[in-house]
Design a protein that fits this description.
CATH class of the largest domain: Alpha Beta
CATH architecture of the largest domain: 3-Layer(aba) Sandwich
Helix content: 40-55%
InterPro entries: IsoCit/isopropylmalate_DH_CS (IPR019818), IsoPropMal-DH-like_dom (IPR024084), Isopropylmalate_DH (IPR004429)
Strand order of the largest sheet: 2-1-3-12-11-4-5-10-8-9
GO molecular function, one term: NAD binding
Largest sheet: 10 strands, mixed
CATH topology of the largest domain: Isopropylmalate Dehydrogenase
Distance between the termini: 16 Å
Protein name: 3-isopropylmalate dehydrogenase
CATH superfamily of the largest domain: Isopropylmalate Dehydrogenase
Number of strands: 12
Number of helices: 12
Shape: globular
Number of domains: 2
Strand content: 15-25%
Structural class: alpha/beta
Order of helices and strands: EHEHHEHEHEEEHEHEHEHEEHHH
Organism: Paenibacillus endophyticus
Enzyme class: oxidoreductase
Radius of gyration: 21 Å
Bound molecules: nicotinamide-adenine-dinucleotide
């Protein structure tokens, strides 16, 4: 038997509880198949926490997360809380939890499943073999730099400053090299070193760390070129590492390669192996409670947790293979179905994936 891993489960709002429920079924099946032991404990977060505890991020939820090895999050938010003051909005809780848990990187895989190639706006032959990960720095750069307005020679001016220090760059770059070592051993570091001083420092740090990973093939790509190459030859990328704002834009671009938001998983990582795992999509209030949401993004988030936090690579591959098998057999939830009349529900999709899961 393996050691017990503690997972804090935060279902959240809207379709959050539905999709997390299916992910937990998959988690349970891996215990049986691989002899793992998971201890799951549920916490309140987001709109439901505002309703029941008067705050989007109650201290007990934060304590639960801090005491866990990993966090599985559904989604938060919804129209009910949209007009609340800033401190009583679910999204404020999201920023708060990332900060409190020291999560400095965001990891987003973009894998194109062959049978879903038609769902993308790109030509199937361009997408062939695409399987990449964007590693985005999450707590530095222009989003967090000093911001102010002032009177200039031509009237009102606005200033946003972009700051990165060596330590911030080193930790994310090491994480990206480590992830590359578990995959195709290719890393593209994206910057704008022809113009920005922060990018020149970024590139220096990357070049200094690279010799520690002699097996990883490194390339430096300018961000504008990367935006183009993602559309032209997405399959040539393995791991992309970049700063906060470039990563924000490129990870959304990469996400669109796959064609459906219901398929995209993500991780936010801090120091060590701790991570928060969640689907990229939101709480989808338009379909909440109807049992038609796609649970695959959350199920693939569990696979990501297995890889990045627990090092359970075999089980992660088994989950991904089960998802592929179910899709290859033609099963689709409404969001990815071409013929909507044949679409299956959330629980049915979860059950099929559990049934397809094999050691
Ligand atoms: P959304 O991702 O919730 O929904 C966008 C569209 O995609 C909707 O039509 C929805 O039905 C569909 N969709 C999303 N996930 C799906 C799934 N798993 N299966 C099938 N269809 C799916 O984005 P939104 O509508 O802009 O936001 C809704 C709420 O979610 C807002 O309150 C927003 O603030 C919140 N949100 C939360 C997070 C998070 O918790 N990390 C992220 C994004 C948005």
């Amino acid at each position: 038997m393996s050691e017990v891993k503690k997972i804090a489960v935060i279902a959240g709002d809207g379709i959050g509880p539905e999709v997390v429920g299916e992910a937990l079924k998959v988690l349970k099946k891996t215990e049986e198949l691989f002899g793992y032991q998971f201890e799951t404990e549920h916490g309140l977060f987001g709109g439901i926490a505002i309703d029941e505890k008067g705050t989007p991020l109650p201290q007990e939820t934060l304590d639960l997360c801090k005491g866990a090895d990993a966090v599985l999050l559904g989604a938060v938010g919804g129209p009910k809380w949209d007009n609340n003051s800033k401190e009583l909005r679910p999204e404020t809780g999201l920023l708060g939890i990332r900060k409190a848990l020291g999560l400095f990187s965001n990891i987003r895989p973009a894998t194109v499943f062959d049978c879903l190639k038609e769902a993308s706006t790109l030509k199937p032959e361009v997408l062939e073999g695409t399987d990449l990960i964007v590693v985005r720095e999450l707590t530095g750069g222009i989003y967090f730099g000093e911001k102010f307005r002032r009177e200039g020679a031509f009237g009102e001016e606005a200033v946003d400053t972009c700051v990165y220090n060596v330590q911030e760059i080193e930790r994310i770059v090491r994480q990206a090299f480590d992830i590359a070592m578990t995959r195709g051993k290719r890393l593209a570091s994206v910057d704008k070193a022809n113009v920005l001083e922060t990018s020149r420092l970024w590139r220096e740090v990357v070049n200094r760390i690279a010799p520690e990973y002699p097996e990883v093939e490194l390339e430096h790509v300018l961000v504008d070129n990367c935006a183009m190459q993602l559309l032209r030859r997405p399959s040539s990328f393995d791991v992309i590492v970049t700063e906060n704002m470039f990563g924000d834009i490129l990870s959304d671009e990469a996400a669109m390669l796959t064609g459906s938001i219901g398929m995209l998983s993500s991780a936010s990582l801090g120091e060590g192996s701790f991570g928060l795992y969640e689907p990229v999509h939101g709480s989808a209030p338009d379909i909440a409670g109807q049992g038609i949401s796609n649970p695959i993004a959350t199920i693939l988030s569990v696979a990501l947790m297995f890889r990045l936090t627990f090092g359970y690579h075999e089980a992660a591959a088994a989950i991904e293979a089960a998802v592929k098998e179910v899709l290859d057999a033609g099963h689709r939830t409404g969001d990815i179905a071409v013929d909507k009349s044949t679409a299956i529900g959330t629980t049915e999709m979860g059950d099929l994936i559990v049934a397809a899961l094999r050691k």
